[in-house]
């Protein structure tokens, strides 16, 4: 069984859209968003996947979500059927932290025919052995200090070392201030991350904030040989579910 986020109570967040970030930005894809996360970013734009009533981990919005309305459990075969019905040839699995459900994900992905698999992860959880061979791309997004997570929990050296050696791993760092870029460069150096596969992306959930931050982030990306990622879905659809 898989635990998924919802768009409305009881309706799993499974949809077709354009990938809005990173190396696959602009590609038509199917999306499935899973629930639950082992980290708690203060600026997280999908807090409805983890900050349920009774969870006191800090978030800038201070919202707590009712678990029953924002979480649904489905059989792997049903999830696979819903994904196949969208008619796409690529699937993006996001969250939350998808790799927390690695074994169930492996069973679900094995049911998909003719689909490339892309997984968004915070980089703290090792891929399940049965899932890893089925994945064509990982979008690894280690969380910087400004996320509010403890560094020891968010930046695990052995995990980062393993990801750095995976040819299908791309790295995406969420940046809120120019100082965050210095932290990114430090992590690249310390963990030998492949600079050609490193993106920096502005934090923000509205177009005005993203554009403002891109004005200073773009020259820093150019200066340091890093890729710049926009958040295209925010410009197209706003900060909404199922997009």
Account of the 3D structure:
By secondary structure, the chain is an alpha/beta fold. The chain has helices at 67-70, 76-84, 102-109, 151-154, 157-164, 178-191, 207-224, 232-237; strands at 2-8, 11-12, 14-18, 28-33, 71-74, 90-94, 116-121, 137-140, 169-175, 198-202, 227-228. Helix 6 links the parallel strand 9 and strand 10. Helix 2 (76-84) crosses helix 3 (102-109). The longest helix is centred in the C-terminal third of the chain and has 18 residues, at 207-224.
What would the average pLDDT be, to the nearest integer?
Answer: 97
User: What structural category arises from helix and sheet content?
Assistant: alpha/beta
Q: Helical element count?
A: 8
Q: Terminal Cα separation, in Å? A: 24 Å
**Binned strand content:** 15-25%
Which geometry do the CA atoms define? globular
Radius of gyration of CA atoms, rounded to a whole number: 17 Å
- Strand runs, count: 11
Can you summarize the main beta sheet?
8 strands, mixed
Question: Could you spell the SSE succession in H and E letters?
Answer: EEEEHEHEHEEHHEHEHEH
The strand line-up of the biggest sheet is 3-4-6-7-8-9-10-11
Oligomer class: single chain
